[in-house]
Amino acid sequence: xxxxxxxxxxxxxxxxxxxxxxxxxxxxxxxxxxxxxxxxxxxxxxxxxxxxxxxxxxxxxxxxxxxxxxxxxxxxxxxxxxxxxxxxxxxxxxxxxxxxxxxxxxxxxxxxxxxxxxxxxxxxxxxxxxxxxxxxxxxxxxxxxxxxxxxxxxxxxxxxxxxxxxxxxxxxxxxxxxxxxxxxxxxxxxxxxxxxxxxxxxxxxxxxxxxxxxxxxxxxxxxxxxxxxxxxxxxxxxxxxxxxxxxxxxxxxxxxxxxxxxxxxxxxxxxxxxxxxx
Length: 278
Hints:
With 278 residues, the protein is α+β, with helices and mostly antiparallel strands. The protein is 36% helix and 31% strand. Among the domains are: 34-43 and 189-275, Efflux pump adaptor protein, beta barrel domain (Elongation Factor Tu (Ef-tu), domain 3), CATH 2.40.30; 90-150.
């Protein structure tokens, strides 16, 4: 009796398991015909920020992990040498300006009023001498503008919203123009870097809507669309999870997230579902 009951329960369990697996298999096949599932990561986009002028770092106002926004003052160089350059440039402008005003007045008084009383050579010499002084005056003004720009460039501002990934230099460091001080991770816009194999390339298009899922339970389904399809094939990167062989050629996609929030973090693995055209 017990043997028959055990056999019956075993058969019942086997039937239930078989039906369950058959349901899952058929469901997967039905979904696969409707959606194209691809894998990727929230793209990490970063920029190195540095000064445009040479100098000694005086202050840094942010550290690694800090959030920053556009126009935040990030760092300062020692501005004393550049203030001295500006003072010298202003003095030079004043000197040449006075010389130019004096020469111009003399020229107009002596040569323009009674031009026929002097030789053409004397007139030409006086005229071109005035033009040289005028050019020197314009050069002095240009140098002053450059000095003011260099002084302004002793302040480093943030160009975009993001967070500090790396604080490369510390106060007291002497840096060359363009040498990175901070590496900044850019927050917006948020997009997904994903890859698609060549057989499925013809199924997608620019602007194609996408649903984006993370591995974290309870997070909402994000909406997005394809914003870029690479025209160049490449081998699947090792960081990409794919059901196909890693040696297959794939094309890089950029899926722009339309409704991101702070829960989507750069580098986070995600799954994107693209609804195929019937």
